[in-house]
Target: NitT/TauT family transport system permease protein
Amino acid sequence: MSAENNKASVTPRDVLRRAGAVAFWLLVWQLASMAVGSELLLAGPVTVLVRLTQLVPTPAFWTTVGFSLARIAAGFAVAFALGLVLGLLAHRWYALAELLAPAVSFLKSVPIVCVIVLLLMWVGSVRVSAIAVFLAVFPAIYFSVLEGRSAADPGLGELLRVMGVSGWRRFLADAWQQLLPYLVATCRNACGMAWKAGVAAELIGSPRGSMGERIYQAKLLLETGDLFAWTIVVVTLSWACEKAFLALLRATADWALAASVPRVAAAQRKQAAPAPAGILLDNVTLGYDGVPVATCNLALAPGSRTVLADPSGAGKTTLVRTVCGLLAPLSGRVQAPGSVALSVQFQDTRLVEAMTAEQNVLLCSAGALSADEAHTLLAELLPKDALGRPVSELSGGQRRRVELARAFAHPGAAVVLDEPFASLDAASHQAAAAFVLRHLGGRTLLVASHASGDVDLLRATPARLGDACGER
Model:
């Protein structure tokens, strides 16, 4: 969306302003050439343009461009792929990150010219540009992946994991979307780094048929026009490769979102609903980082409906996270449906922002709904014009109702909702509560809510942490 908005914001005045800046520097170049008074020392833009028009139509020009482009592109592609994979693995396994750290830091700091000289001795001039590009680009991609994954918000990933969404779909819908801006920002520089490293390697090694060789020959023969012409070709190719690769990289965002949504045949959707499952907290000590908060005993029978009606800040969210397996108890026994069998809505908003409401629902439906069924389910809570828009464009109350529909689209044996009616007005609140009763289907329901009327609206048994839990 951001790329499209940027393109739409470019006005004719912006184009004229940029064209004027280019014309200004071309004029400066021409005046500097005239001041020097020697084409051997500084060829002017007209001379260089004439030489370019002579070079470009020749087969030798395209053969030379193809030679260098193939090797630089190959080095960049391998560096990007390996940097991405090793970065993801290193973020997951700290031991691997520690093992790779010295080598990657060395590659990041070592002068590329020194590396090129060694490579010329080891692999020869033909392969040196691809390897030099790899060594220049790999550290940037690797560290970008580490930074992106470390800064990622874990909230949506937690919800998808609790709802039983597979690791590959979680990566496409959540991790890749959060990582992509870091990769795009890094590749803006990495594409230019690749061409600088590749052409530098060709200049030093001068492999026959490369652009580096042509630049080196132009320098030896004092063909300044050719030198500038080939330099402009390198800059143009670097710019074009950057634009093309960034466009491809940004396009993976939509592709990943589309690929993450399950598509299951109708026959596979006709499965029996899971039997309701109870929830038990037996003498459980709740707490964070080893610090106890409360010792809790709570038993919910299969198919029961319970509302924790404590005020805000009483610890309801801590209990919900413990039931969902996201917070380990300090002691005691927790018995609750595991992943796939638990449907959940957390207190904070956790949606795939670029997805529509229907796609968010289908992502967590475990293939239990078709697109039409997801549309029908959401239409009970949302106006029709909100269903096909990215959820980032919806109001807070509408986003909350998307999350509620998503929880009931998931075929869990128990449903856990944390402040499900927050941000809703009175009418929407009542409609959402009726939706819960309509689609509960006999499943166990645990709701954490500070709203006083939710016990009656949900026809549930009230409970309070103070009653169910004995504070230490």
Remarks:
- Confidence is low (pLDDT under 50) at residues 1-8.
- Residues 279-470 form a domain with the Rossmann fold fold (CATH 3.40.50.300).
- The longest strand covers residues 279-288.
